[in-house]
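Q: Start with the shorter request: fold the first protein.
A: Done. Sequence, then structure:
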Amino acid sequence: MSKVIFSIRYNIFSEKREEYLDVVRELKNIVKAEGLETYSVFEQKNKPNNFEEVYIFKSKESYENFEDNTDERIDILMTKLSDMIKEQTTQYTTLFEVNNA
């Protein structure tokens, strides 16, 4: 069973920073799903307001089912987040763990 790392990297508007941090704190408390090991948010060193959300899933199946597990509050927070992100700065990465099979 291979793990999956899914990440989203983006830049936010500097004037939205405090609001962004509040939303992320709330998300970190409520984002939970079967097979989701961790959800973390990082800021890039020496580049203020450049963030990356990192999701680590136990398996490919957990990753594929993640979207089905969101609730209304998470959807609202994600919509708020999308309004704070600068256009054309979003990059998605999906990594599948290599097994020693």
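Q: Next, the second protein, separately.
A: Sequence, then structure:
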Amino acid sequence: MQGDLGKIYFSGGTETVSGHLAKAMPRSLLLMAYTQVFALSVAIPLGVISAYRAGRRTDRIISNILFVMSSIPGFAIALILIIVVGVKLAWLPTLGYATYSEGIWEHFKHMLMPVLSLSFGLIAQYTRLLRADMIASLREDYVTMAMSKGLSDRRILWKHVFRPSSITLFTSAALSMGGLIGGAIVVESIFATYGVGFEIFVAIAGRQYIALQSCVAVISLFYVFFNLVVDIGSGFVDPRTRDRRANV
């Protein structure tokens, strides 16, 4: 209740869990933000195209690619990227974390492979959710009315179909933010980004129970916070959810 998360055992009581989390949390938050931006940037166009071409060749190709992406765990993608991109091609660094002070390009070079490792599963998840909701929205009467007025397909898809279909996508993206902190344990350990996931790994390996409990408590708070963000933000995405009569 006082914000005292305890001390690290092996440091002889000179290092606090709060101090470690203060250094690790910004790195994890940046990794989460980059992952979400990249995943949504890829998933939204794929979901719209897949829904517009539902049942056709384009939709089948996208669905097959998503199936493969969702079948490969993040740590396996991380290892493949390290071997191919980091070692054989030597395009990107395989370990460590670079701050903005070390150079923006250097920072993004260190973050690119962790982001790709965490994004594959999210891209498949988000695309499927958006595709299913948009297919259902395309069957609504107001879409038929928009088509009868001669509106272009692009305007119908992005203005009249995408916004009401994005509620589930927005909810899933917000809730996955909290899960990314704890779910990045293996990926952060592989790339040694020294985020919250890496701190959890160190706490488990060193049997630092107080540190582990504190990290889990922080992740739980993030789950609560992002749930609140979903409840508040859904009303802005879809104004219909703000109508009290909708609950009657």
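Q: Describe the second briefly.
A: The chain has one domain: 9-247. The chain has a mean pLDDT of 79.
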